């Protein structure tokens, strides 16, 4: 292939660590706490079947034809209406999953070397989506309430190095499961407005709260100050790839042009099918059933951790929603190195180091409690604790 | 919005000319020859209905779940098998329409300022898809058989300015409708191999031939020398957004990583639905019906042009397949300026200037013969000729 000169950025595109790990964990019998796969029990297959038939019967030609890059109007209206601040459908751009939202925002906001602030740790897929633009990614220190405003101020930079964008996942963050509280949200939004840095608020899990609804989104507090990403992946089905961006009207046209260049539009059929499923309050009935199920599984994981990790120097988060929980293992454990031993014992996780922009904490790992059943969770957490004890004993 | 600093590339993202024109042409009663919309009569709605039901019944959970970025294995196998050269399914990457293929190839192949060779004129959507990477786009002279090898050699450049990639649409090109003949294909492929420039072969219309099958693809002649883009948009339905890239094995991993970062994967449900529709030779029965229909419409347009433009100094292409035909109007006509007068007479087209990397020929226009019926085509071409005559008479 000596005739091919690739773009410089291609050398920074590396296989996803999670992806490579998931390949290892495809052995039969393993209980994977690694992936972020919603439980297929939550997929409303019958509702999709009726919707597919109805859409093809009543609107077959349009659902199979090229369509506007903005997205299907009734779906944009539904989204604008259900968001808890004043949003016009003109501000809603339908994307091919909210992952595409990250790609489009990177394209219009980031030059090579532009400073991008992220939480510590942060969502790996966002780091990958932004990497083609080769930004300077700077992690901001975070505690259990989210990003720390004082460190944000230290990292924001000045002049040409002033941060272009800050990426935040306030609800049940991937990977840590933590949630920004109301006070912290307000402090961060106000500080960003003073500093003049727009935010990108990513909220794929917001509806999956188990105890009480989280505080209002950042974007609701300053709609002109940032961009908001939402998704149907966690409340309906990820395999349809349906997400959206909400943008200030002055920014929207650039995102729209990036969208059009990227894939013309999100599949018309999928947009209509989802609009058909949700139109009569379906989500108000459906989402509580998902919450109830995942809450039990979260509780099962917390109980299993209490039981099986007793006596070990281990900390974990207690997420009030979402899909993930974050663990810090005892001194002497490197979760990358320990993974093969865990897979031997039929349990898989994602090592935490993949989620850091720099200076990873090698003792951390991410566990998902949504894919495995309560019983499987207990078995897997016991296997994980056994792995940790065996690893420590060998030292 | 004074807090927002956008990426430099955002200033080069402009609304699609075609898109803006199509908005103007949405007035009732207009016959649009502008868009590249396949006739909805060709959409196999019943087949999709059965397939949707079957997929949701037999494979509901998987069809709605996250999936591998490479695409659905049976679909990749089908594609590899039906291509007329030796392709492994491992070389096939499913994309969200072939437009996404352009975005991904741009990401891995083009740096800012990289030289990109294109035909004169070329597909506007490709120019848009590559524009985020800010390449130096250089048009190569072309005649009725396609790109001229001698001019290709003149434009290829040396050293850091040597072309990274050449973008070619050999079959029934968008916008001109022209087809590279066998001799020209062989000459261009050999010249590119000597020059050491990889090609990107875009073939969305290849199955839509009306007289005889076109010559073998460029990629079939040198599979290690380029990338190939294909699509289901023109033979099944564009609204499902299903395309694919075929890449040499050494290049594939970079495209895969770009795909994963862009939208994780193409919708699982759509891939399974299409795989279900096509699995038993459906396309062998279905595509000939599309060919027969579009051939009649092409013939109608050619006949209408002969009739209504008689006596005017007008040239047009005689496409042997695809969806478009290219016209050069008489001296004194600027097709951008004439468009409002044409819309007044209830006919719309796309001015040709949008399709040039530089130095547009303002006398040109693109007409589509696939969306309008034979009768509508006759009415529209008469209206267009009337517009031209009226415009010339005013001068």
Automatic annotation (TrEMBL), chains A, B:
Enzyme category, top tier: transferase
Pfam families: Aminotran_1_2
Sample GO molecular function, one term: transaminase activity
Entry EC number(s): 2.6.1.-
Entry keyword set: Aminotransferase, Pyridoxal phosphate, Transferase
Top-rank taxon, per record: Bacteria
Listed CDD domains: AAT_like (cd00609)
Cofactor (UniProt): pyridoxal 5'-phosphate
Entry annotated with the keyword Transferase: yes
Residue ranges of domain Aminotransferase class I/classII large in the record: 42-384
Record's protein name: 2-aminoadipate transaminase
Organism from which the protein derives: Comamonas odontotermitis
